[in-house]
Structures are given as structure tokens and as C-alpha cells.
Amino acid sequence: YYTTTGTRRPDLIFGDIRVQGRPQKITFQPYVLGIHRKDFTFVQGTADEDRYTFGGLLYGDLGGTGFDFEVETMYQYGRYKTGFDTGTIHAYSSTTELGYRFQKGPFYPRVIASFDYASGDKDQNDSRLNTFDPLYPLAYVFFGFHAAFERKNLM
Q1: CB neighbour list of residue 104: distance below 8 Å, 6 or more residues apart
Q2: Using an 8 Å Cβ cutoff, are 77 and 52 in contact?
Q3: Among 74, 61, 48, 68, which Cα is nearest to 137's?
Q4: Model pTM?
């Protein structure tokens, strides 16, 4: 999670690994989220939905090299029920990021390369919902304030 200063505070330190005599901090944060919504609208229609997200966030720095990384993977499972149909939810999302912070200079700039993927529904006519739902989206944090993207059907 983020504090008010924007600094990530680790919940669980996975371990200290030594790389050429320099400490490396790697943090692993597993989580489970659940949401229960009534009359939620998606492509298949409007339904009551129970959706659970099982995820894990792994991040850290690579010793004193200036490189850092972040990997987050999520799987969603659940059920939805309309007045005439019941269906299952199977969706997933993953994001990876590799960054480098320059150690010299007045502002310590950071350059990153990242890749995001979120599943989408393959067949809108079946009872299986495959669209990943970000549950509590803050798209502007990842994609800028224009918010043209949301973590659904994304690659």
C-alpha cells in the first residue's frame, strides 16, 4: 500500500539477499479481496455478483545497482446470477515493471519499462465471464489522468 507521502511500506519482508556484498530487499505481499454486488451491469447483462481476487505483489531493489522491479499477478473467481441464468467468473491480470534510478544528478530520475495484461471475455454469449475487474480502479495512477484505460481487456 502507499502512505500519504507516496512511499510504499512493506507488510512482509521476504528476505535479505546479498549481491556482491550489497543488501537486497525483496517484499512479497499476498492478498485476497472479495466483493459482493447487486444489480451489477456487464456485457452478459445485469446480475448479482460475488467475485474474489487472489493476488500477490513482489517488489524490491537489486542491491546497489540502481535497478528495481515489481511483479503483481491476480486471479479472479466467482459467480453471477441473473433472474434466468447463473454463470462463473474466471479472470486474471498481471503487471511487471523494471526500473532504473540514476544515482548521480540533481533529481535522481527513474526510467521504467512495464507491461500490463488483463483478460477479456472471449464469448459474450456463454455463461463464463472472463473480463478482469479492477474492483476499486485508480486508473490514473498507472495510465495518467486522462483515464482512457482501465485494467480490463488490456495488453
Answers
A1: none
A2: yes
A3: 74
A4: 0.71
